[in-house]
Amino acid sequence: MGAKKWISVAKSYVGIDYVYGGGHSASGDPKAGMDCSGLGEKIAQACGLDIGWGATTTLESQGNVINRSEVQTGDMGFYGSRGSSYHVVWALDNRQFIAEPQPGQKCYIGNIDGYPADFWIRNPKIAAFVGNGTTSGSGGSGESTVTVYYFTPFYYINQESAKRWGVHETDDITSDSISTVEEMKKYADKTFSLNPEFNLTATLDPNTEIVKGDITHVSIRPADYETDLKLVGYTQYPYSSAQQPSVTYNSNPATILDFYTSQEKKISSVQRQLVDATKISRTNQNWLNNYVGGETNQ
């Protein structure tokens, strides 16, 4: 019964903002925000327990070290070395934890093995309250649905891109198939545009031949960056020697693909028109042969 109570209270805090120093008083409102240690202290308070109010290093001294395999509801997972830990998460069961991560983020439920703690401590007061706890990964009564993360959501900056172009924030990304931080970083590098899109429009001398599929090389020396731009559009005046044609080059693969797709559609359309015209010519020829043949036979 105690384990279900602990889990139910803990889950009610999912989505509450991280606030440094929050949750460290009996009168404080948890909805106003908590930090990593204050979260557990507020869960304990709501369960009628007094485990004190303090930082992670204080919580370390309030129990005994246990093995990862022994983790159950209410156990504390610490990050850093004994005596100088800097972060703590609170076990819901042997598979999941709940945590307040860092400033700018919210309380969430994560996967213990996806964000492994350096050591685990069992507080005797919490252990007595939860009994044998929940170790099966059932997460309690199952009355609420929450998002479970394999690892702590994090803010990622590709250092090479940032050095070259500065930092430009974009929307968050998620993936249900990625379970490690390093895999997520690689996914981010593939998903985000690490270099800006370049677009170049040039006006040419009259009668200059435009080469389909043309590529121009661009070098940006201050950023130590080079790239190829491909022809993605042009305007020409085949019947005027006075008007100047123009060309547009772009570095975005999607824009390049769209251009060549549109060119293929135009070619296909012209081919269909030629086929239709050929059919019409054959029909006219057949009609003419029949007509002339008919006149000749009279």
UniProtKB/TrEMBL annotation:
GO molecular function, one term: cysteine-type peptidase activity
Domain (NlpC/P60) ranges: 1-131
KW rRNA processing (keyword) present: no
Keyword rRNA-binding appears in the UniProt entry: no
Membrane-crossing segments per the record: none
Keyword annotations of the record: Hydrolase, Protease, Thiol protease
Pfam family for this entry, one: NLPC_P60
Domain of life assignment: Bacteria
PROSITE patterns the UniProt entry points to: NLPC_P60
Swiss-Prot/TrEMBL GO biological process terms: proteolysis
InterPro entries: NLP_P60_dom, Papain-like_cys_pep_sf, PG_Endopeptidase_C40, Tail_dom
Family: Belongs to the peptidase C40 family.
Name this polypeptide is given: NlpC/P60 domain-containing protein
Organism: Limosilactobacillus gastricus PS3
